[in-house]
Design goal:
alpha/beta; Spore Coat Polysaccharide Biosynthesis Protein SpsA, Chain A; 2 domains; 7-stranded mixed sheet; two-stranded parallel ribbon; 9 helices
């Protein structure tokens, strides 16, 4: 199977892009990585070369050692990048990823920690998604009722399919399920009337935004739209529980650093003294932060790994006390 992976980033999230690419390589991924970005290229990509990519101008390709090639694709969308995900995926399917057997979107604050073969098996089961930390939402949860009323008034019928509320940071799809991405994009477009602008998003680095809609049902823009797309679709959905993103104990597949305090920003000793222990995603990030894409100096990686160990030790002592 030929797979492609994509992500979207701006600002300091380039550190996450490097760690994500490194984790993919260690997992056995050997396909293409596409990184849509707003703003300049990261410093560690300064030796990239211009390349021709269908549908884009000014694309730059970067390869390090035997790692995958990352193709940086500049974006000019006025939307917040979290709300640009389905449109970006569709552009890739129409252009550079048109020959891929599977296409995956992965947020740049995620690392892949399972063998890549698993992901290719997973996407054959249906649209691959992960349960969110705020799940479940039963059939008549006010947020689901809010979506139902809002979209049905706009000609989109929704039907309850599962209790799980899924996270917008990861999705795997094969080209035959393209209609699902179109439904996700349409759900965001229709949502814009309620939230005011797709430049808004209640995420880290988000523009001004407040929860809105019946029972605040549009609290997580792209993520809510993704769950709406599931209810609007008849395509098979393959969801793995909260353990997939390390939101609860179990086999973590794609540990996800939710909210503020990304792994490249945290001081683990100070956090441990406040009672905040290193997370699975912190350990995964610094395990994959070194190579082949070196976004950090080797000494910084070594020191952060020691800091992680110290934070874990403080946590154990605190718990015993």
């Amino acid at each position: 199977m030929t797979s492609a992976v994509c992500t979207l980033f701006e600002g300091g999230y380039h550190y996450g892009v490097a760690a994500l690419a490194n984790s993919l390589h260690r997992a056995g991924f050997r396909g293409s990585v596409y990184a849509g970005h707003r703003g300049p290229l990261p410093p560690w990509a300064s030796d990239g070369r211009a390349c021709a990519v269908e549908g884009w101008t000014a694309a730059v390709a970067v390869r390090a050692g035997d790692g995958p090639q990352i193709t940086f694709l500049p974006l000019s969308t006025p939307h917040h990048l979290t709300n640009h995900k389905p449109e970006f995926l569709l552009r890739l399917l129409d252009g550079p990823a048109r020959n891929a057997d599977a296409l995956f979107y992965v947020d740049p604050d995620i690392c892949v920690t399972a063998p890549w073969r698993f992901f290719e098996d997973w996407v054959s089961c249906g649209v691959a998604v992960c349960e969110d930390v705020n799940s479940p939402l039963p059939e008549n949860h006010p947020r689901r009722v809010g979506w139902r009323r809002y979209y049905e008034a706009r000609g989109v019928a929704l039907r309850f399919r599962m209790r799980e509320y899924v996270n917008g940071g990861f999705i795997g799809i094969h080209p035959g399920h393209r209609a699902f991405l179109e439904g996700w994009k349409d759900a965001l477009t229709l949502m814009e009337d309620e939230i005011g602008s797709l430049a808004a998003a209640s995420v880290a680095q988000g523009r001004s935004y407040r929860s809105t809609g019946f029972a605040a049902c549009f609290d997580r823009t792209d993520q809510d739209a993704l769950n709406v797309a599931i209810e609007a679709s008849t395509l098979p959905i393959s969801v793995i529980g909260q353990e997939a993103m390390a939101f609860k104990p179990g086999a973590a597949l794609v540990p996800h650093a939710l909210g503020v305090g990304k792994p490249w920003q945290r001081n683990y000793v100070r956090a441990a003294l406040r009672g905040e222990l290193p997370r699975t995603v912190d350990k995964a990030f610094w395990e994959h932060a070194g190579s082949p894409f070196a976004a950090h100096a080797p000494m910084r990686v070594a020191l952060k790994r020691l800091e992680l160990m110290a934070g874990s030790a403080i946590g154990r002592l605190t718990r015993r006390a």
